[in-house]
Amino acid sequence: MQSFPRELLDGYASFMAGRYARERDRYRALAQDGQKPSTMIIACCDSRAAPETIFDRGPGELFVLRNVANLVPTYQPDGGQHGTSAAIEFAVNSLKVENIVVLGHGRCGGIHAALSPSAEPLDEGDFIGKWMSLLAPVAEQVGGNSFMTAAERQTALERISIRNSLNNLMTFPYVERMVREGTLALHGAWFDISAGELWVMDADSGDFLRAETVDEPEL
Amino acid sequence: MQSFPRELLDGYASFMAGRYARERDRYRALAQDGQKPSTMIIACCDSRAAPETIFDRGPGELFVLRNVANLVPTYQPDGGQHGTSAAIEFAVNSLKVENIVVLGHGRCGGIHAALSPSAEPLDEGDFIGKWMSLLAPVAEQVGGNSFMTAAERQTALERISIRNSLNNLMTFPYVERMVREGTLALHGAWFDISAGELWVMDADSGDFLRAETVDEPEL
Amino acid sequence: MQSFPRELLDGYASFMAGRYARERDRYRALAQDGQKPSTMIIACCDSRAAPETIFDRGPGELFVLRNVANLVPTYQPDGGQHGTSAAIEFAVNSLKVENIVVLGHGRCGGIHAALSPSAEPLDEGDFIGKWMSLLAPVAEQVGGNSFMTAAERQTALERISIRNSLNNLMTFPYVERMVREGTLALHGAWFDISAGELWVMDADSGDFLRAETVDEPEL
Amino acid sequence: MQSFPRELLDGYASFMAGRYARERDRYRALAQDGQKPSTMIIACCDSRAAPETIFDRGPGELFVLRNVANLVPTYQPDGGQHGTSAAIEFAVNSLKVENIVVLGHGRCGGIHAALSPSAEPLDEGDFIGKWMSLLAPVAEQVGGNSFMTAAERQTALERISIRNSLNNLMTFPYVERMVREGTLALHGAWFDISAGELWVMDADSGDFLRAETVDEPEL
């Protein structure tokens, strides 16, 4: 039979000897009392952009949805099996998270695919093509800008996509209501990978600013 | 405006001073050369079960999809926007991962919902209900077993669901072909949270065994 | 009568007591032997982006043209009085500079004007409007992107404009010939002002990279 | 590819470690609040006569136009792309500078060209010849003065040219009006290079006087 990957077993042994040993009580309490994360992160599947790593967070702190290119569709209560919407519904209505962060990142393969609409599909099912078509209108406009370099178009769409996901989140009636009432806050962020830079979205302008320059919360 | 969560900014500062500082070259190479993870993990959004934490893995190693209850639907090339299938297509056909691990865990809220079909939906859209209906046939049978305790039914369905996801993975033609050809391997695992136990699925029997008891690969 | 600005007289006194006193011999040699700068900089008039300051260069090192938004028109030997073209002709054919650097910068007022074509002219002569019309085709395309924020459009056009100036430089027959022969090199750079970041253009891709990450020259 | 000049990268590193490190707050404020220079300098491209160096001024203080021989054309609202006029329009009408200084200097190559009308053009486009023709009437008279030495003719034309630029500035209607109203002042200055002498023009007589001898502003 196929063996369970050795590096994962080794990694698990390291986890047990390290983090788990140190945080045993926390894990037991989290099992006993249930999870109460205050923040949901919507991130990409990319192996270089794990939210727990970038934000250095431990067990119980982040409820994390990860799909290709951290996309959020609009609210579509049509009876379909919408995995992303299910996670949002659960986080907001059951876990009562106080924050939702859409976390994008540089060199995103999904965004690259969205900017290459004429590329051959990966497979005849073309799930990536269909999934990234959620961005089609914006991807078309950005992709058509012949004066920007390929890398500039990519970064531009990565950031536009984060704003797009945040806008789509607001189409969920309970998200809109709780944001209005001040019990839920939406945030955007973009991780650079290479230099490790984190850029945080300014909610007013939609611009992304280096995390180091973000002021303390106003009281 | 709403401030970016302070604990995330602090966590990011800690990441930069710690892991990033130590692994700067690795991040730069991962940006330059692209990601080449050998393993995809399909895990749950639960805040207590982050794969990178449980397997103690660093940047570039795990391509991670996370949805509610780590479900995989069957292959449905119907033109719909299937986020989970898109991630699988990308991991297998573009990244050429060698392993896919479906990682479930104890006390899963999604599984709990699947076992409570008569509970009131979280919202009129009922995305959780629709999403967990992917498990409806098995959930119905387990849920109807009045001789098991509630906790036993929960654990049973968590494990059945992992096997179900693995079976559904095999409905993707390329997954089936690559598994047959030996270039892709599928694995199941279940994390206990409380005691930190990892249980690994035996591919032949479908049983879950403590990771510590899993033999070295047979030669 | 109007007095010569006091701060300039004070600054001059400071220059004489400082830099001039230290570099007296250099100034005398530069007067005696003439200037032999190896680099021409085409920069903006902006008070925050003086090339000698950003590159910490002394007398005799940089031949500096500064106009609004560091624009270079195409080669137009039509008998008109083209100030920018005159400076380029002098630098290349008389001074024999080896490098031309087009240096743009963030928050450029000229670029802002190019993105606000319907704004009221500053004056009925509308010299700014006419001057920035050199960028009209690209400004139109960038300005029409409704998915980018105003700041993103601004940065995008600042960088596009640098590439545009470099392309226009290549329409000067002698520039083209000397670049081809390897006796003249063209470069782009963009200065951020706020964080003091300098971004250097990669000649192959046209992308801008942080100066700190630029490799040593290949030998 | 062509590498960015090493001495500029080194100079930038020196700037960041020195001036930027000391004036970080000033740069940030200048980015945030925009530039508000009170003085525009119209200077020459010559590498030996950078205004920021001669007047020892820092970021945000001087709005600097530099062309060959610090020429100002007359006001010509003919729809042409006049770079120098655009900078003047922007400085006066948008930045509301209070002073404009035309700064000439000794051993100016452009002035030398203007005094050598029969010299072969640098290139068939002859942009320098065309540009310096702005001075043709005065250059002809000075050049024809056989009783002055070549050096005397050069210095004479350098100073005449400054007065000429100041006169041409007064053909801009808003410059004329603001000077009349006392909200804008025009000044001339000439820098010697060799001995580092700065000569300031007396507005009444047009004579140039050593800066050290210029009186304090009259009260």
Automatic annotation (TrEMBL), chains A, B, C, D:
Record-level GO BP terms: carbon utilization
Residues that coordinate or bind Zn(2+): 44, 46, 105, 108
Entry cofactors: Zn(2+)
Enzyme Commission numbers on file: 4.2.1.1
InterPro entries attached to this UniProt entry: Beta_CA_cladeB (IPR045066), Carbonic_anhydrase (IPR001765), Carbonic_anhydrase_CS (IPR015892), Carbonic_anhydrase_sf (IPR036874)
MF terms in GO: carbonate dehydratase activity; zinc ion binding
Swiss-Prot/TrEMBL keywords: Lyase, Metal-binding, Zinc
Cofactor detail note: Binds 1 zinc ion per subunit.
Recorded coiled-coil stretches: none
Top EC category: lyase
Source organism, top-level taxon: Bacteria
Catalytic reactions of this protein: hydrogencarbonate + H(+) = CO2 + H2O
Biological function: Reversible hydration of carbon dioxide.
The family this protein is said to belong to: Belongs to the beta-class carbonic anhydrase family.
Record's protein name: Carbonic anhydrase
Organism this protein belongs to: Arsenicitalea aurantiaca
Origin organism lineage: Bacteria, Pseudomonadati, Pseudomonadota, Alphaproteobacteria, Hyphomicrobiales
